[in-house]
Amino acid sequence: MMYRFPLEEFKQWPTPFYYYDMGLLSKTLNEINRQVKGYPYDVHYAIKANGNPVILKEIVKNGLGVDLVSGGEIKASLAAGFDPGKMVYSGVGKTDWEINLGLDHDIFCFNVESVPELEVINELAGRRGKTAHVAIRVNPDIDAHTHRYITTGTAEDKFGINIEMLATAVDRALKLPHLHLRGLHFHVGSQITQMKPFVMLCESVNGLLDYFDRHDIHFELINVGGGLGIDYDTPDINPVPDFQHFFDTFKRHLRLRRNQRLHFELGRSIVAQCGTLIARVIYVKENRNKKFVILDAGMTDLIRPALYQAHHVIQNISAAVDTASDVYDVVGPICESSDVFGTDEKLPVTRRGDLVALRSAGAYGETMASCYNMRPLPKSHFSR
């Protein structure tokens, strides 16, 4: 059954725009909290997935922390009301001003990705008379079998410290006077829908913890990142991701030590399904072998299809369900051949002025929008 959008409201708003189902977001957050209740687990929202202030305030209300990758995200998180004591700051290229911003607000942890970064954070913390809390990001060399642009945990990726170099990095962190080493951090990729990569991650973490136990080095936290995928193909059947299977994987396979806490950094799985890009049909064009539906939304509004070859369910929400259908390529107006949302899409017979929904666009949609071709950024609206 297709999701029922408030079409009368949509007719009042200029397109394209993002529409967010806040009830679904609340349901998703409630399910996360239900799965982690009673366990030594802390969940941080990866704000890079969607930084819309209305979305952020709902996540704050549900008690999650936040995972950050820039100084701008620190500022947005503070404005939304996130507790600095629940902020973790990741990323391979933290600049001095961004590190200082985190230090000034006493954030919970910097996820550090190199020995030079450890040394810079130590120096900047020392200048402020502070101790910086850090976790070392480990590259576990695990292939999550996702698109090559969103894999992060193999030896060829730029992220983290290779396992064979980890002992040296840990030793260095323990010796630097203005650092407090809290633990180890991992993240193997994104849009992972099979649990095997997470099981492999647990096994890698278990081995590392055994190694450091033997050397009398103990960590107060382990951070396994995020990466849980969503159902892009049938969003109405699976509007809430399978958090039970995800968290149960770590409950069964990861051997936490006494008083050790497990941290997660979930982004896409929290916000993707609640967001939809709504566009209007400008033209229906026919060439020799193709029919094109040309939308007023393009890759500037939703870049995932052009960047990752991703596919979002495309629905003509103006047409009656029982009308005749046809096959179209659904494209945008941008002067780039990659500005294509879908090829050979079976849709109800589509006409100029129809409204089209591109589903599961709440993650890496609005937040990656650009003004290329000098186009305005899309607006956002929310369910009541």
From TrEMBL:
Pfam families: Orn_Arg_deC_N (PF02784), Orn_DAP_Arg_deC (PF00278). Its cofactor is pyridoxal 5'-phosphate. Residues 18-362 form the Orn/DAP/Arg decarboxylase 2 C-terminal domain. The keyword Repeat does not apply. Specifically catalyzes the decarboxylation of meso-diaminopimelate (meso-DAP) to L-lysine. Belongs to the Orn/Lys/Arg decarboxylase class-II family. LysA subfamily. Homodimer. This is Diaminopimelate decarboxylase. The gene is lysA.
